[in-house]
Amino acid sequence: MAEERVTLEIDGSIATITNRNIEKHNAFDDSMDARLFEIFDELIDTPAVRAVIWRGEGKSWSSGRDVSAIGTNVTDLTHHELMTRGLRGIQKIWKIEAPIIVAIQGWAIGGSFQRALLCDVRIAAEGAKFMLPELGHGVIPDTGGMGVLYQMAGHGLVSDMVLTGRRLSAEEALSHGIVSRVVTPEELHATAQEMAEKIAASPAVTVKMARRVIQHLAREEQFSSMEDELIYQTFVNQSADFAEFRAARAQEREPNYRGS
Fold first, then answer.
1. Cα(30)–Cα(53) distance, rounded to whole angstroms?
2. How many CB atoms lie within 10 A of CB 210?
3. Which residue, among 141, 147, 25, has the nearest Cα to 86 in the 3D structure?
């Protein structure tokens, strides 16, 4: 069940979200998304939680979307409505009062990587890898990650990662400020726990006000970027080029793109 593949544990003032779809490197499907958004609601309604750790079991934090599950859920929602539901779900992160520390090992890919970017702090184990491969699947990143990466690292890196699908190492991510620490795999979860305990021990109102200053610096541009993604991804989904992309893949031939 999805509830078993994304879990929430609360120990005093510290909550831990754990990705547990281990066989698929913690790739997410629709039911896991639904459970994740329920967890966000629980955290919004639990003010006693003062810090959140988001971790993954197994070799990877999350390899992104479970492509084998795409199209398996029958729904009456349009593509635009599905996109809207996903964006509004992940934006619940912004309503959680407690800072979220993401502890990343192995892969952080696509939408999952973008979700981590929307959190407060990211730390990585040595050997962690980051990637935005969406263009190779005929679509664009659509979870806010482009806007956050632009703020962190500027035009050059976000263009490289988005347009070429470049794989970024933990050390490169550190140099660009995408993660704030790189530790050994053995130290990853202990470091996240230590950080969470330090945050939880600080005056709650002080943490809240400090985060609010940081959020005000970044949030407007991030929200604007996500609204653009909602419109443009919907356009891409209905485009002639995307139809040609899918047809060429199915027929195992070279595509003939026309830019429309």
1. 22
2. 12
3. 141
Q: CA 112 → CA 1, 154, 166, 218, distances in Å? A: 20, 20, 16, 20
* N residues, the chain: 260
pTM value is: 0.94
User: Which residue type is seen at 194?
Assistant: E
Give the DSSP letter of residue 180: S
- As a whole number, mean pLDDT of residues 62-67 equals 92
Strand, helix or coil at 74? Answer: coil
Give the 3-state secondary structure of residue 178: coil
CA 240 – CA 242 distance, rounded (Å): 5
- pLDDT above 90 for 69: no
Backbone angles phi, psi at 121, to 5 degrees: -140, 140
- The helix or strand, by DSSP H or E, that contains position 163, with its residue range, turns out to be helix 155-164
Domains and CATH numbers, the chain: 2-204 (3.90.226.10)
CA distances from 58 to 20, 22, 30, 54, 104 (A): 8, 6, 21, 14, 11
25-55 pLDDT, tens digit per residue, is 999 999 999 999 999 999 999 999 999 999 9
Q: Answer whether residue 70 shows pLDDT above 80.
A: no
185, 125 in Cβ contact below 8 A? yes
